[in-house]
Amino acid sequence: MGKSDFLTPKAIANRIKSKGLQKLRWYCQMCQKQCRDEVSGPGLARLPRRAPGSPGSGPGCGPEGCQEFRNDFLELLRRRFGTKRVHNNIVYNEYISHREHIHMNATQWETLTDFTKWLGREGLCKVDETPKGWYIQYIDRDPETIRRQLELEKKKKQDLDDEEKTAKFIEEQVRRGLEGKEQEVPTFTELSRENDEEKVTFNLSKGACSSGATSSKSSTLGPSALKTIGSSASVKRKESSQSSAQSKEKKKKKSALDEIMEIEEEKKRTARTDYWLQPEIVVKIITKKLGEKYHKKKGIVKEVIDKYTAVVKMIDSGDKLKLDQTHLETVIPAPGKRILVLNGGYRGNEGTLESINEKTFSATIVIETGPLKGRRVEGIQYEDISKLA
After folding, report:
1. CA distance 215 to 207
2. 69, HSE (Cβ side, Cα atoms, 13 Å)
3. Which of 14, 32, 31, 13 is CA-nearest to residue 101?
4. pLDDT tens digit sequence for 146-171
5. H/E element holding 7?
6. Cα 128 from Cα 133, distance rounded (Å)
7. Are 359 and 311 in contact (CB under 8 A)?
C-alpha cells in the first residue's frame, strides 16, 4: 500500500499532530504523546501496569512530575512577571506554550484553581480571588533581595535618627538663646473718639521736645551745666558700649545658627546612596555576559525598577535590555554638555559640565535647576554624574 496522499484525512491529522498541542486532557504522560480522544491506544494497552511514581512509570508521573511542574511554573512566574500581581491563567497559558512541558493531568492537582490555592497555602505566592478569576503574586525569598531590603530599612532608620538628633540640637540652641530674655507682648488699643466733632491727636515721641528743652536750659544755665552734659554723654557712651556688646552677642548667636546650617548643608552634600540609576541618562554596558554585541555599547535608561534595575534601550540597535546597575557605568560627555547628578547632596539636579580633571577622576559642573541654580561645584566624581539623553 502506498503512502497517504497529501490531502487525505490521515495526512492532515498527522500534520496537525506534529504542528502543536491538542486538548490537554487527551495527552498520555506515560506514552509521552497526544491522544486523538479519551480512549487509550493499543500502544498504551501493551505497557505494563505500574502505579504512578513507581520506577519505570514514565517521566512526569508521581511526585517527580509534581515537583518539576511546580518548579517550572514558579520559575516562569519569577522570571517573567517578578513580584507583580498577575492572573493565573496568563501564566499557565505561557507555560503550556512550550511543547515539552509537564502536563497537569500527570500531577496531583486536577485543575489550575486547585494548584493556585495550594501555592497560597504553602506560602509560595500571594493569591486572591476576584470576579475575574484568581490572581497570584510571587513572593521573592532570595537572600540577596532580603539583605538589600534590610539594608535600605536600616539606612532609612539611621537617617531618621540623625534628623531627630539635629532637630533636638537646634531646639536646645534656641532655648538657650531665649533664656534670660523677657518677651515683650504688644498691647493693641482701638482707635476711637467719643464725639464726632472731636479731633484725633497723636502724641509723638518726646525726644524732640526734650532736646529743645535741654538746649534752652543749656543756653540759660552757666558753665556748671557743662558738667552735667559731660556726665550724660559718658552715660550714653556706656549705654552704647553695652548695646554694641549685646549686638556682638547676637552676632555670635547668629553665627552659631549659621554654623549649624552649614553643617546640615555639608551633611546633605556628602549624603550618598548605594543606588544611582535615573531615567533618561546615557549609560554604558560593561558586562561581557551579553556577548560582544552589547559590550562597551551605550544605551538610554527608559525605566528604573526597584532602584537597582533598569530597562536600557540601545542607541545603535534599538534593543531593550533589563540590566542591573552593577553591569552599567556612567557616561561623561564633553564640556558644555548637559548632565544629571546621580548621587550626593546635589542628587537629581541638572547641570552643565564645565571641565574635567583626569588626574583626580572628577569634574566641575554648574547647577542649572532647583534652589541651587547657578552654583559652581568642583570635585564631583565621575560615577556621580552622567550624560543626559
Report:
1. 12
2. 24
3. 32
4. 777 788 888 887 777 778 888 888 88
5. none
6. 9
7. no
Shortest CA distance to 276 belongs to which of 300, 310, 321? 310
Q: Which three cell numbers stand for residue 116?
A: 493556585
Instruction: Look up residue 171 and give its three cell numbers.
Output: 531646639
185: left (phi over 0), alpha (psi -120 to 50) or beta: beta
CB distance 385 to 340 below 8 Å: yes
Phi and psi angles of residue 245, each rounded to the nearest 5 degrees, phi first: -65, -40
Considering Cα of 335, then 340, then 344, then 348, what sign does the dihedral take? positive
For the chain, residues with pLDDT lower than 70 are 1-4, 17-63, 180-186, 188, 191-194, 196-257, 261, 263-270
Assigned C-alpha cell, 102: 509537564
Cβ–Cβ < 8 Å for 346, 278: no
Residue 345 burial (10 A CB sphere; 0-12, 13-18, 19+): middle
Beta strands in 229-281 (DSSP E): none
Pair 30, 58: CB distance under 8 Å:
yes
Please list, in sequence order, all residues whose beta carbon lies within 8 angstroms of the beta carbon of residue 324, skipping any fewer than 6 positions away: 308, 309
Q: Please write down the HEC assignment for all residues of 268-315.
A: HHHCCCCCCCCCCEEEEECCCCCCCCCCCCEEEEEEEECCCEEEEEEC
3-state secondary structure of 33: strand
List CB contacts of 81: < 8 A, sequence separation 6 or more: 91, 138
- End-to-end Cα distance, the chain: 70
Q: Which pTM was predicted? A: 0.35
HSE-up of 184 (CA within 13 Å, CB side)? 3
Q: How far apart are CA 346 and CA 30, in angstroms?
A: 65
How high is the pLDDT of residue 344?
83
